[in-house]
Every structure is written in C-alpha cells, then in structure tokens.
Amino acid sequence: MNPQQKKKEGSQKEGNKTTLKTIAAYLKITPGTVSAVLNNSAAARVIPEHTKRRIRAAAEELNYQPNLIARALRLRRSYTIGVIAEEIGDIYGSQVINGIEKFLSRQNYLFLTVIHRHDQKLFETYSQMLEERGVEGLITVDTSILAKPSLPTVAVAGHRQIAGVTNIVLDHKRAARLALEHLRDLGHEEIAFLQGHVFSSDSEDRWNAISEIAEELGIPIRPELTVRIKSTDSTPEVGFPVTKELLARREPFTALFAYNDISAIGAIWALREARLRVPQDVSVVGFDDIPGAAFANPGLTTVRQPLLRMGEIAAQTLLRQIEKREEYVPEIIIEPEFVIRKSTTRLSSRSARHEIGNTRLSALDGGLG
What we know:
Number of helices: 13
C-alpha cells in the first residue's frame, strides 16, 4: 500500500480527519510517542531524534491538524502567551513580534498582543488582564518592567535586573565600538549624535555605551553636537526636526551617529534640505538595520540588531521556562554586526575637513536663513 492509500485509509477511519492514531498506525508506533513529539512534551526528550523527524514528516505528509482546544482542555493549559509592546506599528517592534510568531507557530502556541504606548498604568492593567485570560508567560518588547511579574517573563531590550525576568539585550558597548571605530578610521573627529527618546528602554544604556567607548577612543562628545529625539513617532519624521535643531547651532560636524535607522533617514532629509550632501559633506550611521535601511538613499551604514532572531530567542526561552526544560537565566546577550553601505565615506585630510566645515556654514546660511 502506497503512502497516499495509507493516508486515505487512515482519514476514512477517523472521519476524514488525520489524528494522532492515524500517524501512529502509519508509522507502526504508539500514539503516545506521536503525541509526545507533536505536543513537544517533556516525554519527548527521551525519544530518539530520528524518530522525531519521522513523526514530523508523517504529520506533514498526512496533513495533520492539531486540535488545540482539545489539547488545552486535556492538559489544563492554555498554550498561550502574552506579548506586551510599546507600539505595534513601529518597525523595531514588528520585526521582534514577527520572530516571536515564527517560533510559536512551530510549537502550536498562540499569543495575545497588547500595546501600552508608554503608559505604566496601562501596562499594569494589561498585564493583569492577560494573566486573567490564562496566558502562561509574558514577552515584553521595548518596555521597562518595574516590578517582579507573577508569570515567567522575557523582556526584549529589558535592562532592569528584576527577579524572574530574562532580559534579551544587545551588546551596546560592542555596537558603539563598531560604529565609532568605523567613523574614526574614516578620519571623522567632529561627530554629532542623536540620542534616543527617554521612553525607549534602550536609550540610556546605548548612550552610556557610546559615551564610554568614545572616551576610550579619544572621540569628544560635545554638548553642542548632541540632541535628544523628542517625538515618539515611528516614522523618519523623528529625526528631521532634531537634525534641523542641530544644524541651527552652526557647529561644524562631518559625521552623525543616529539613535536608530528611522531617525538616521530623517536626519538625511534634514541635511539635504540644508543643501548638504550625504556622505560627501556629512557621513551618517544608523542603528538596527531595519528592512528599509538598505533601500535608503544613500544605503544606510548601520549597526545591525538581529531583531527577528531576538524575537525567536525570546519565545524559545519563555517556552523552555514554562515547560521546565530550562532554568531561569537573568540575561541573554546578543552580538551586533556592522553593515557598511553608502552613507559613510572617508575624509582625505585635515584640510579637507576644514573645507567641509566652511562649506557647511555657507550652506547653513543659505539653507536655514
């Protein structure tokens, strides 16, 4: 009997629906073994890997669709987690949530998402509501947790040391070193900085890392060349007004290191409005490597955070803690990468920097009135 005939026969026996028994009969193993593998239960740990692969392949071949409600009722579990994000429309959050969904879908878990928009009271209310709806754990994205949660919790871009919370954090010192060494090696000494909004959970740690590495490399951070992002908008508009504010100070700079890619793209718009060329007059470095960074004009040199992977790691870590397959760890460090594109270039000499400074001041006189 060929596989298609077996599949048809099994489906007919179970009312045209492939079940665990169908797969077990097809593979000539016990339904309990099939159940352990497809439900990813603790019992699956003792099952050989080649058997697991056979079971998963057969489930796909026979078009097995798990009955999640029946499984939840049988095991008295919801197989649901809560995801709490600052905003759902921003590219950072959406990439992380995509990673969470990608992992959870393979494990037959559901998730509920709520948005707090920097409102701590709303965050607490939503946390309680999610718990009341039976979620088994929480993942927070770009959100500051102030107190110990009652459920297993993983915080993407979490920086506070809270008992019971696993923080998924980028190595910001490494990220700062990659960006600042790149600019230094290109000859840039006069560097402007866009600091993150105070609400962003990464903002303080990233700035502290930049300040520490800049001092180590002998790169001055001048207050007149530093401005903080004020808007919580999730479009390039966040970088436009603060860069205009920076330019209005009429302090020459040859490079700009932005808090994130979105603000870097907005900064490029503002520089162009002032008739400054990127990268010939000002080199620009972003942070995150969002999908649109490569398609900016020019393509954006940036620090890459593996946002999709960070979401997957967060989901995997939480499920292992829920299912008691992994002990609690307070922090998981993620290594950044540096992506060089067309928004940065070398300064050929000190005199060239001087000429660029003069060019800038002339441009500002005409561009800013």
